[in-house]
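#structure-requests
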Amino acid sequence: MVFDSYACNGNRYWTYNLCKEWWRDKDKLVAQLNTPEVMKVNGDRVQLYIDYLSTDAEMDLRRYCFFLENSFYPADNNVLLPDL
């Protein structure tokens, strides 16, 4: 998938604040994904990633931010998750 390497440095790099900054730049990321160069290299996967950014990504990122702040993932959907 596009930008898979983001996961390689994981929890040693990412912080709640860095995740918020990354999310604020989501529109720029989508614009970059729509460039011919990226589309040529990644093909149909680009649209899958754009679709993900428009749907489940926000909740997944909020859950990850909870993990970064608490060292565990929320056990259920009743936990108050951090804002982005």
